[in-house]
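DM from R.C. (forwarded with permission)

"hey, sorry to bug you on a friday — could you get me a structure for this? deadline for the figure draft is monday and I only need the backbone to look sensible"
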Amino acid sequence: MSNIIHLLPDHIANQIAAGEVIQRPASVVKELVENAIDAGATQIKVIIKEAGKTLIQIIDNGSGMNENDALLCFERHATSKVKDADDLFKLTTKGFRGEALASIAAIAHVTLNTKQATSDTGNMIRIEGSKLVAQEEVLCANGSSFEIKNLFYNVPARRNFLKSDHVEFNHIRDEFERIAIPHPEIGFQLIHNDQEIYHLLPGNQRKRIVDILGKNSNDKLVPIEEKTDIVTISGFVGKPEFAKRTRGDQYFFVNHRFFKDTYFNHAVNKAFEGLILDKCFPTYFLFLTINPEKIDVNVHPTKTEIKFEEDRLIYSILFSTIRLSLGKYNIAPTLDFEQESSFNLPYGMEKNPIIEPTIQVNQQYNPFHSTTSNAFSGVSRQENQSLNAQGFGQQSYSSEDWNNFYPIEEEGEEAKTASIEFEDLQEKKRYLIKSPYIITNSKSGLLVIHIKRTLERIVYDQLMESFLKHPIDSQTLLFPIEKSISKSALSHWVNNQTLLKQLGFEFESTPEAINLLAVPSIIDENGIHDCFDAINESLLIDQLEKGDVAHQIILQIAKSVGNQKKIVQETDAEALIEQLFNCENHLFSPSQKKIMENISMDDIALKF
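My reply, with the result:
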């Protein structure tokens, strides 16, 4: 009887492991760049072609390997970072399981050139599908160079599940940034299809963040610094006024390792509570330094989820530190208990002599006499019989007395309006405009219409109809507008340049900025910057198809018009409502927010 259970061949076991470790080209970049850092590299170059499907090359100037290590590094569970079980609880390196190179070699053609500084020559190793096909002595630079070609060549199902080059390269860039940000002391270079995306020189932490986000981000950052026995927290948070509608620029690092944590994210959001608008998210780059024995990084295959032994204390420290820093830089409201409590005199009165105030009293004044003189104005005033009747006198009183007790002085246009009979008002004024609402009568009560959302719906429908037939009308700017943006955002603008031109935006790109040449003619000059920023955030949303991108951009244009246009005249209100009811969907805005609400007479009666 044959055995049911048997050992898997190494190449199949490696392919299974690759399914856990190597999910897409970005996974290869992450593993190899982290290995380069662990090897002590000070310069790391990443070369990508066709989003990593054709080539991924990582070149570093690290310690390199000798001939035996070069062969051994491709074996499963071969590592230089863990020698016994105790090492797992005090990890200071990035990689440690020894599965990455074996997994990569199982599903790609891999060529390694490596040399140690103490050797005159290096070694070349070539492996295809876990099989060693070549090994020889070569001349090469100190360090290591990994060439990964034809990724997933022998796992076609996995290759077919890869997204477009644009999406896959976005994942590569994300992994690159997550590694480059916490290591400002290392120089990094990223090249895609012969185009340099990043050339990051060694520097301090703030410079590294600004180099990645763009030069205009420097003034938006608030430094964070706190040292305790439990954790040391450093880094930067964005000023509240620059909070975004996407979660893009939110980074946690522990001991220079990127991780995600909803619990700590809640602490940051709570620190910004009351400082940013709803559905907006703060920017943060927070670096936690903690005893490696107090964390477990081996709870997730990609090591992006980390278990903290003292997470509750860290939460409190994180919240307090951010709140304190926001207050320190006069961003969060704070109370100054050391400030002198006395009132400061206005500047113009500081040199005037101090004069004791005097009080004048008319000792002859009697409020119960029929006529008396005002002590201050000398104006004669009439006796108030209603006051007397409430226990201060015995005279009878009439309803007119109460009108004297609460006198109404009619002056100006508002007083005249108050005297108009309701029937006359209904005939003369059909719409009441109280921004952001238009109020008018309906068959069952009152109809309240949201002006801004009405404009959004009208403009969105018009632009969408125009876009489906021909390019949206644009206006050329007299002077180009330069907008400095991050490398990530820049690539989105360039990749969608044809679509953006159809939507009315024309621009030229530089390595760090977009120069706007033309914008949709419907956008007011004052709304260009806000509209650009909103579109920039929309483009950063991952996994958007072409139709979704068009929808998001048109939506932001419509919102810009809704923000800039004011309705003040009754005729404008009437025309706006007429346009609204011509829209196919006049109940909800393009953002699916309610445009109008009918308040019935029964609802009004409940208020009284």
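R.C.: lifesaver. DSSP finds 20 helices and 24 strands in the chain.
me: no worries. The CA atoms of residues 365 and 455 lie 62 Å apart.
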